[in-house]
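Run log, item B.
One chain of 272 residues. Sequence copied directly from the ordering sheet:
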Amino acid sequence: MTRSKIWIMLRNINILFFIGVSVPVLAADKLVFATHARPPLSLYLEEVIQESLKPYAIEVKVIEMPGSRVISQVNSGYADGDLSRVINFKDISDADTSNYRLVKEPIVLTDIVMITLAQTEITRPITWETINQGKVSFLRGSKTIRKYLNIENRVAVSSNTQVLEMVANKRVNSAIMFASVAKKMLNQSPELKSKLMIQSPAVLTFHLFAYLNKKHADLVPKLELSLRQLKDDGFLENTANKYQVTAASAETFSAVSLLQKINHDQPMQHKE
């Protein structure tokens, strides 16, 4: 073997070694987050997580997908994080979430609302007992909504459009959905807006949190710190106003925590 051929072989080995070492480093500089939320909420979450990780020179890609797929992708590590789950998500989920790691800073305060036919009269206050008087459509993968609905009333569908169409076509009595998503969809569809109405007040209010796959556990405290700073400098509130959602704050977190404690002390009785 000539000296030139030996040199070429050594060069190729060095290149392969460099690629092998560099790929994980580059991969760590771009994270993929999944969410089952839809616009405008998903757009808000995307902008917040991008800004939160900017100080660490980490690029972010956000993918919308069905809730059950989000869980499997994040828990398996194919996606790096889940952007929109409640604080007790691991306790209420019946899927494997053993690799989920909570980021203990809320990102957004969200309302869950009941949608009915426009002429429907609802007895106030609206409770889960009220909602469970008939069939209810909701977006498949929403563990929080699912736990409040009786098994015989659950109608899980694949898109928010289907959720609303089920009510409009009188195939269910009502629908349950994020308030921000419901408002945007009705504003964009004159036909659905003429047939449906959002009942008030909201039936449930809670904060949403991000979760990371355990391989990024060292990033959790950094992300928590960054989110606190974004709250303090007004970025969360300004971004929330742009997308017409409600930013998480110390005040909303305290108020909702108290409400959840009251509800926990007086739990709703329903069939499982």
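Observations after the first pass:
- Residues 7-109+207-265 form a domain with the D-Maltodextrin-Binding Protein; domain 2 fold (CATH 3.40.190.10).
- The longest strand covers residues 196-213.
Flagged for discussion on Thursday.
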